[in-house]
Amino acid sequence: xxxxxxxxxxxxxxxxxxxxxxxxxxxxxxxxxxxxxxxxxxxxxxxxxxxxxxxxxxxxxxxxx
Length: 65
Description:
- This is DUF378 domain-containing protein.
- It comes from Maribacter flavus.
- By secondary structure, this protein is an all-alpha fold.
- The chain has three helices and no strands.
- It is rod-shaped and about 60 Å long.
């Protein structure tokens, strides 16, 4: 599985957990700021991964010895 697919799935799962009232009722002790921060971190990680992937594709260098 590609890294970007994993990051998108994690971001969607985290968003669904943040929005779900059932999850907050079951895990009432969980701070919503922690979940929101984790979602923000996942979004930044996905964006950084896409930027690095695009730069790597632009500068594809093959070393032949």
